[in-house]
Amino acid sequence: MFGAWLLVCWLICQAIKVSLSVPRPVDTATRQDCCLQLLLLIGDLVLVPYHALFPKISCDVRFDASSERNRRILAAVPAIWFWPATCWLRHPWVCFARMQLMELLHWLFVPGSVRRELVPLTSGGVGALDWYASGEKLPHDAPVCFIAPTLMGDGHVEATRSFAEHLSAAGWRCVCFVKRGGGWADTLLLADEDWQPTCMLSLQDTEQGLRIVRQRHQNCFLAVAGWSAGGGWVRRYCSFSETANLADAAFCLDGGYGWEFTVRSVDQHNPAIAKIMGTSLAKPLLEKASRCPDQIPKWLDVPRLRHAQSESWAAVMKAAHAAHGGFSDLDDYFKAVPDTTMLLKQDSHVPLLIVASSSEGAAPHSYWTELDPIARLPESCPNIFVCMQRLGPHIHRPSGLFGTGNWAAELCLQFFEAIRCESK
């Protein structure tokens, strides 16, 4: 009996040690990794009282301090220096589960929160703009926030919805773009003749949505924001648009710059998340195939695509994107269909704030230090601000005792308002 108690005490001590480690483990590729995640969860639960008393997580902020304008901007953004994290939502998988539950409950019991406007895309197919109802009664000159979607998300995604509601309460009109086939509960079905796999970045399609919003609100302050894939779009758009950037400010949360190494990194370190990502990309094509079985193109092997969902993100892309391009191998696809904007220097002609966590649950710590070293960006671009945290669930930073606050949204709002003051 005494030995059992010693074992329990030892396990609790190890759990606390893992919970307080920097960086925290995020891999789920092996049984050992999963056991470590369980240990991490136990440590987080044991430390809930401690984190309730000391919730603040400091942030490592990088920016060009030689610029007086930059110093004025950050002086107006007090939220950037620390995140008052919810004590019981520090583990990414707990936070992911809560986000999905909140999204489902909101979809079931709060209908009509967005108004969907279909957008015929110049590249073929149909996209959409999800306008948030909370901003419908705002004056026409109210500031506007254009939100780039997550990988296959829409305006109903919990991280996006809570962000938009926070900004709307402060007088901002918010709208989220929806890619071809995007959305889970309210899927935007592929058009009749559209069998093209959805591009993960959808650079030109999302830019088309931004142009529509800018044309309707030509004299308003316009900001762009995005998280995960949407954050990647924000960074790419700021790089390739140069002085033609339609936005006045930009915000990116947990958005990587390169897709090839993102797919391979997530497949290697977090296969469970990778399969979810792959399934979301396969969903529009499989739904279209079941709806129009007599129109399935020769390149699309439906059984193979269905099975690829249980394998990996890369397997889905090989069965869909590579097959659509006539390639038998994903490496050949990436080589033959290069993402030219990936080669551009990461830059921005408008103030851009990039926020990321070294233990977000989707990508390993090495992602932000080796594959996409964002901390170095302010050295070459004075318009880029970087805020790094030692932990924080992917695309969500809950705050408050019950996790109802959204620190990322408040940080973004303060940043955008600071830019507005500078532009007046």
Structure in words:
- The chain folds into two domains: 2-46, no CATH class; 55-258 and 339-423, Rossmann fold (3-Layer(aba) Sandwich), CATH 3.40.50.
- The longest helix is centred in the middle third of the chain and has 21 residues, at 271-291.
- The protein has helices at 2-19, 31-46, 48-53, 68-75, 92-109, 158-169, 203-216, 229-241, 259-269, 271-291, 302-308, 313-324, 330-336, 365-371, 377-380, 407-423; strands at 56-62, 82-84, 114-120, 126-132, 144-148, 173-178, 222-227, 249-253, 352-357, 384-389, 398-399, 405-406.
- The chain contains 16 helices and twelve strands.
- The strands form two sheets. The protein has a ten-stranded mixed β-sheet, sandwiched between helices.
- A hairpin with a 5-residue loop joins β3 and β4.
- With 424 residues, the chain is α/β, with parallel strands linked by helices.
- α1 packs across α2, α6 crosses α16 and α10 crosses α12.
- The model has no long low-confidence stretch (mean pLDDT 92).
- The N and C termini lie far apart (71 Å).
